[in-house]
Amino acid sequence: MSLLTVGTVAFDTIETPYGVAEKVVGGSCTYVSMAASYFTKDINLCAVVGDDFPQSELGYMKANGVNLDGLEIKKGEKSFFWHGRYHKDMIGRDTLVTDLNVLADFNPILPDSYKTSDFVMLGNLTPSVQMSVLTQMTKKPKFIALDTMNFWMDIAMQPLLKVIKKVHVLIINDEEARQLSGERSLRKAATKILTMGPKYLIIKKGEHGAMLFHKDEVFYVPALPLEEVFDPTGAGDTFAGGFMGYITSTGKPNFENMKRGIIYGSALASFCVEKFSTEGLKNLTQEEIKSRVSQFTKMVKVKI
Amino acid sequence: MSLLTVGTVAFDTIETPYGVAEKVVGGSCTYVSMAASYFTKDINLCAVVGDDFPQSELGYMKANGVNLDGLEIKKGEKSFFWHGRYHKDMIGRDTLVTDLNVLADFNPILPDSYKTSDFVMLGNLTPSVQMSVLTQMTKKPKFIALDTMNFWMDIAMQPLLKVIKKVHVLIINDEEARQLSGERSLRKAATKILTMGPKYLIIKKGEHGAMLFHKDEVFYVPALPLEEVFDPTGAGDTFAGGFMGYITSTGKPNFENMKRGIIYGSALASFCVEKFSTEGLKNLTQEEIKSRVSQFTKMVKVKI
User: Fold this and answer.
1) Under CATH, what is the fold of the domain A3-299?
2) DSSP per-residue codes, B271-300
3) I need a surface site. Which of A9, A44, A181, A192 has the fewest CB within 10 A?
4) pTM for the whole thing?
């Protein structure tokens, strides 16, 4: 089974109380692919970069099963760049610079080989761009996941609602779920959002874990209480990538697989935040991932 | 096995976005006893009230296994009164009135029959008062739990550290754990606090659940995603009461029983917040509690 991931491949400059990482690799597609590559080697990446993006990073992706046929490299142009500074609590952050560069007129054109991908992860982009990806698919995907943010709810709610209607799972954080639904209670928010199209809803709660809603059911995975969160950048995309990578590997997007997928996604995200940029995600062994996953199941294990 | 609970029996006026409840029953001992009474009928309550406290409420407690020999009723005086207003998010709150009344010079004198209680729940009080209770015990309790708040960390850190040293489990919220330890990471905070005396630490995270730390182990119980939180007053005390009531019923304060205790405590707290004051806690059946508990275990159940 194949996984299509559409989003950004970019540079970040990240300031945290622990230090500064200048112009390091980032972007939703980068994190999604790296996390997913631990579960499937059939990943179709669709994004745009300038010719300033390091070949070595692209080489790492390729070597890990990421097809880059859909990565547009714009000669003489610069990759998308974000510069952010995290607050002391490592949750709040200020954006200091956003240089859209090549992203300003990103119009994803899927190579033919991508158009029959079985699983689709639509990263956080303009809703109309997300929709244009779906309309290019020549085979109905088995399962589509969508990430978005409050910015699009503020300025493009109608196009956003249209694309939300087309997807199977929406992956957003608690504040986004509240804004989208107009409900403070996450249970009520979920009930409302599940009438908007998606059969499944994942609400990410950062250091408090994540929840999966489906019909009247709810599954909760807490976040591991880590000694240190070093750099939260990309944690959400890594979570989504681990989740979708695992689901793709099963071929069956049902509730039980999604529960496992959320744990795999959380485990990958816990590696991600331990180092700057994508460093924590590189060269993990299956043993390391397995051991991290077992910490999640152990943490909630109880016999009543 | 017997459970001694020391704290307040009081009146609250509560304002929430859903309405106002004027001069309703509250106080840590009230919530602790009511929750604990579903697990043990050998509860020794120690608190002080004025003669304005309704006999009917005391009658309900007595009928549910709560010994009131240690409840001092001060003639011609008024019970402790708190008036608070919750913010729209139902988490933040402002205190509008605090009338200490009888609590101003509360000096708990344990009846002889209380002095050999096996389990002790020290509610949030002046640390020196908490210590005076422990010095009155003629038999070393099997297990002592302590609740406190940031107020005492601000003005009475040394006496607080002294009483913390004497207890087996400290039950505080995330912000209190951070203040007590000076660590932002809850994992690091826990490691530090577990060197201060207690072998166990429970960190309450409100709508995000609760965590139990012991040596290198951690257990996490998420909160149920409720449709509506109607009144959060007393949720923390109810949680502590359910926890201690359950542990008392087992007689064995080990890690496995504490894990179960935290789930029972969380289940009782979820009933508590559904109604004003103690109303949600009254006249529950064992079936209702069992069914709520099974929601907690179902919510995290996954086979990897």
Assistant:
1) UDP-N-acetylmuramoyl-L-alanine:D-glutamate ligase (3.40.1190)
2) HHTTSSTTGGGTT--HHHHHHHHHHHHHHT
3) A192
4) 0.95
